[in-house]
Structure formats: structure tokens, C-alpha cells
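Fold it.
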Amino acid sequence: MDKMYYYNYLRDYILEVGDRIIGLDKTLLEDSDALHNFLDARAQLAVKEFEQNSNLPGGCGQELAMQTLLADLTEMEPTEEEKEAEVKYQKEMEIYQKITDWMDSDSIDDDCIKQYYIKIRSMEQKIFQGHADHFDGLMDSQVLVEKGYLQKVLEDALLNDVVKRYGYPDVTYLKYTEKEMGIDAILELNEKRKTLEFISGYPTQNGVDIEVEIEEVYIWDNGMEATIECSHDAWEFAFFATDYLRHQDMYKKGNHIKVNLSALGIIVEKPMESFSFEGQQAIDWYTRTGQEPRRDEDGNVLPAIFDLSKMVAFLNTKREIPDIAEFQSPVSSLEEQTFLGIDFLKTQICVCNHDNTKVEIPLFFRKEMMPELKVGNPIRGCLWLSAYITIDDDTLYQMLYDGEISRLEFIKFRSTEIRHEFYTFCRKNNYTVDNTAAEKFFDWMIAEEEKAHTDGLD
């Protein structure tokens, strides 16, 4: 962790709790130079503490650094006004729970009502909403716009999906891809202006299929995006759902789903591969752990050496951004790719290796971060997790055959190319996007395949 991370964290903390901090001179909140000096000094201490303990297992180094950063900054007892606000909040949460229980029941299936209560669903926790930091994994977000990359993406993107919403404008999904990396864009139809308005955009990557149980769904204020907390056996994590609005009925607390999960590296660097205790420090360590010191032929105590090259760590440090985590892992595979003219590395890293659960996922990051990386080398840094629901073809065809899904739903789970072809078919023939159009599209595809087969025989 660098100094600015701790500097900004402490600054936000101080500005939030303000004059309720014990042991902090109130003039620090009024004098910017004094505040800067205090933050800078504390951040340096936190970095030093982290560097001394960063190789301890289970994220203990980060915990010790945060303790140093926040030492003596204890909050006072809440005021009467704050107590009243807490009681009011608890009552609102009771209402929220009743509404969500009702909405999740089988007795309601009205998109209009669901949209009305989106903000109530998000009361429980405020999640950071935005993708600027995520685009930093690709390039500076300002560069993305100023150098015309965003315009290129929108010009060359395929139509990925159109979501009809009762009482609300249609939402259009576009997808731009190069090999295994891409950018998705969400646009909303402005019926008055007859234009598509850009709502959101975010990086995407091809990942690995993994089955998860949904623990919580945090819907963003625009109602079109969401952050998902979930678990896979012993591994608990969160991801940004790149397809939330398209499959929102499947993103329900308690549901078991299969998602395609990947990570984008925001910061990737070389970690410390080993450290040691020598002399008296080694003797003290052996004593604390109940071991006899190892000695050389002359009786001198040998250093206690700790190898960290195979260490696996995955730690989310901020509750408001659960889909961003710090990590460390050796690289088990390595492949070069290019996206928007920038060289990237696709690596395979381990994010969980305990309680008989081992999970490896692909991590994409700019090659300039670690140009000399080789398979087997350890890496560490900060990553962003994203995923989308996936169903394998055999299961999908069986569900269609058994009548569990319609032909329109079947198409929405197929590849971007097939979905784009379907929407192009509807537009050319002036069809409304519904199950009838999907059936006609199936008939058209069969006729095209038969025609191609007949032409081949000729």
C-alpha cells in the first residue's frame, strides 16, 4: 500500500467524524497545513508498519497498519440526535424488509412496482457507484474520452441486448470486444428526443465459470447496475454484475447461479518473496513458537527464513467497494493480448486456497505494470471483480426442450453475435422484440442452414 492510500483514508475519516474525535486538536480541522502535516505523518507511520508486517498471513499486516493510522482517534458517544436518527433508520429497515420479502414472493411480478422500490432496496448499505477507477485498469478514464477511444467503442460495438421495462424507457446494451477483453455500454432511449442516452460503461473480460450462492444484492441508484455479494464454498467475495438488468430476476438473495468471473488489475506489482529473522530476533521468534533454534557447525543461530513466493492472499479492505480487493498469488499461466492498441497480460491467479476450496481466476492487467513477469512469479496488488450469468449450451437446450424457458430467453443467453443477429433480424423485418419474433428468427436460421447445406451439395 502506498502513502496516498492511507493519507486519503484518514482524511475521509477525519472529515466524517470531525469534532467528535478524542485526542485530536480541533484546529487541525480548520488549518489545512496542519491537517496535511498530520495526515502525512500518520500515513508514513502506517506505510512503515505495513512494510514491516506485510508478509504476515491473513492480512494481519494491513490490520496493524490501520491500527497505527487510526490510533487514538476514537469516536465519542453518539448524540441524542444521532440516537434518534438510528431509531428512525431501524424502523425504515423493518419496512424495507417487509417490502423486499413481499417483492421476492411469488405473488408479485410487476417490473413497474419493482422499479419504484429500487432505492428502498439499496438502503441497507451504500455502495460506491461508478467505473472511473475500473477504467484505470485499462487506461486513464480521461484519455478514454479525450482520445476518441469511447467513440470508437460505440461505433464498432455490437447490439448485445434490449431490455423492455414496463413504464420505463427501453435499455440498450452494446458490447465492444477484442479477443477476450471488451467494454460494455448501457444506453437508455429518450423517447422525447428520439435518441439513445449514454448511462454507463465498464470494462469486461472472459473469465472462468463458477457456481455461487448470492448473499446480498446492492442495486445502484440508476436501477440498471448492481454489486453482488456471494460465496463459493469457503470463499466469500463480491463482484459487479455486468448483466444485472438483463437477468435481474435471477439475481436474488439465496439463489444459486453459475457466473463467468474475471478480474481486472488496477495495481499489479512485485511483492516481497521472502524475509528472515536473524540473531536475537531469530532466537526470540523460536522461543515464542516453542522451537529450538537451528544452529550452524559453530553453534551460531541460523536465520529463520520465511518463503512467501507461494503465498495466496485475498482481502477486501473497504466495505463500500466490496468488488475491489487486495491480493497476492503466484502466476500459474501467462498470455499476452492487445486491447485498444495497449499490451495486456492475461494471467491465472489463486484467490482462495483453504478449507478444501481452491479457486483460480483469470487476471488481466497492462503489461507495463510488470513487463518481465514469468510463470511461477508471485504478484500482488489491487483488482476489480466482475461477472455475468452463464448457462452451458447443453443445459440451455434442455431447458428450451423442457419448456422451462422461451425461445426469446434462450436467445438472450446465447453469444453476443447471435443476439446481435437476432436484433438485426427484428429491425430489418420491423418485428417487435418478443417471443413471436424469436420463433420467426429460429425458423429463419433453420432455413438459412438448409440453404447453405443445399448450396454446398451443388
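Residues 274-307 form one domain.
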